Amino acid sequence: MLPFATVVALIQPLGGEASTRQGPSVSANSLVDLDHNRQFPQNKQNEPAITRDPLTGVLVAGANDELDNPLCKGTTAALSSPCPFATGEQISGFYVSTNNGASWTGGYLPGYDNAGIRRASGGDPSLDSGPSLCPDQQTFAYRCGVTIYYANLADPINPDQHFSEAMAVSRTHDDGTTWLAPSLVNALDKTSDFDDHEWIAVDKVAGSPHFGRVYLFVAIFCGECAGNSNVKLLVVHSDDEGVSWSSPVKVSAANNNAAQGFRETGQMTVATDGTVEVFWTENADSTKLPSLQVVATSKDGGTTFTAPITIAQVTDYPLTGTPFDVVDLFNRVPGMSARVDCYPHPAADPSSNRVYVVWCDFGGGHGVVKAAVSSDGLSWTPLGAAGVANRNAFFPQVSVDPSGVVNLTFDALTTPPAGDPWQTGVQVYDNYFAQSTDGATFGPAVRVSSASSNPDGASYNNLMEQFLGDYIGIVSGPHAAYLVWTDSRNATPCAAVDAYRNAIYAGSKTAVAPNPDTACSSDFGNTDTYAATVSY
């Protein structure tokens, strides 16, 4: 096998001009969010996503941002939240950089405070870009511009409609300077269902039979069902830039139970030939069946899909046997109470029909990033793993640049002592980047974050556990990758909160949460979105 540097030198940019690639070079970290000098929970941001305008190079990111949430009221009731969410709170923030991520401006997505949508932006951002619809309202073309899409949850304003969580899609034709009114995906809006984990993808390569079509992949949780919510996964599409949407197509079963485990939503992408590929984890945390990374593919523009195709078996982080089981059951990285799931994250190669997918895996007791590749969505080849010694990897995301170079980002938490695997408050994590220039193996992981993060300064609003969200983001351009991640370097842990958490983990039913706005440093809970550019 050729040395990493030699492989890099053999890759040539689009157009065939001669060029010598250099190894990855990381820029200074830049702060993306807008919550400066706020107290908890207004200083809490997480789940960043990012896309790039291929014509202008402008970067547009999104994140859950809680500037709109009231400060903590405190509580005297045992095991209750001192910082409850407010009805109608806006959560979906957008951020724009015109200088390759060095600085950012932004605000909340507009259009959620009028009578038309009658909902609040609910976060869980997913962004993508594609060709604009031309004035004839029939043709998509980059000569008509670039449309950037921002999908997010749409929260019910009426608190009695908790299980009517819906989805909405906003779009901009000027890189986030202005946003058109969000469109509600009404086909999935039922009062007994809870839409979640939505992911958007655009058919963006000219020549595809459905060039310009926008797809949305979503999990529907049955709000009135026992067991594991009987999660079913659906896909809808739009041919008018998200103004209207097709009827949903179900791509999974809906038969979760204790033996079968959980169906953990993944993400989606569209290959250059128009193949739509949706990924998820089947049998997650089952005690009877192997947990599998699967994909369902469509060759007809999302009208029909294959049955789930197994990519690989996965070992997720532990679900049970942690001190945090008394609060809830989520997968946890040893040394951290924040939830983490190893569901799959894909990216299409714009230079070929290849699609790559990555996920975290805890097999052998060491968390790494595993990967696979396919040229047809049907047969998959495993790739070499990426990781960091003495750290457990989580939150992987992948992107492929115009010449086929595969760019990977992930976080990794320091490993706790073997005799105290759930020691919290001590472990720290950093963001990393790794690259594959041959589509088969990844080079060494390069640290991206310029300062480490202690997750103990992060928190749910109820204070019972740490909280970092569910994912981070990456997008690639020519010779560069642009990364965004949830960072807690500016978050200060709080002794009063730690004491409350420890009491709960020990089984207390009478512990009362402190008010972090009076009992803690003003930086408690301050999770930020940071960005960096990796050039090569």
**Percentage of helical residues?**
under 10%
Strand coverage percent: 35-45%
| Individual helix count | 3
Q: Uncertain spans, ≥5 residues at pLDDT below 50? A: 1-19
**C-alpha-based Rg, rounded:** 22 Å
Determine the N-to-C terminus distance: 21 Å
Care to count the β-strands? 30
Largest sheet, if any? 5 strands, antiparallel
Instruction: Characterize the overall form.
Output: globular
Mean pLDDT: 91
Class by alpha and beta content:
mainly beta
Question: Describe it for me?
Answer:
This protein is mainly beta and 536 residues long. The chain has a domain at 48-270. It has three helices and 30 strands. Strands 1, 2, 28, 29 and 30 form a five-stranded antiparallel β-sheet that branches. Strands 7, 8, 9, 10 and 11 form a five-stranded antiparallel β-sheet that branches. Strands 3-4-5-6 form a four-stranded antiparallel β-sheet, with no helix packed on it. The longest helix is centred in the C-terminal third of the chain and has 11 residues, at 495-505. It starts with a helix and ends with a strand.
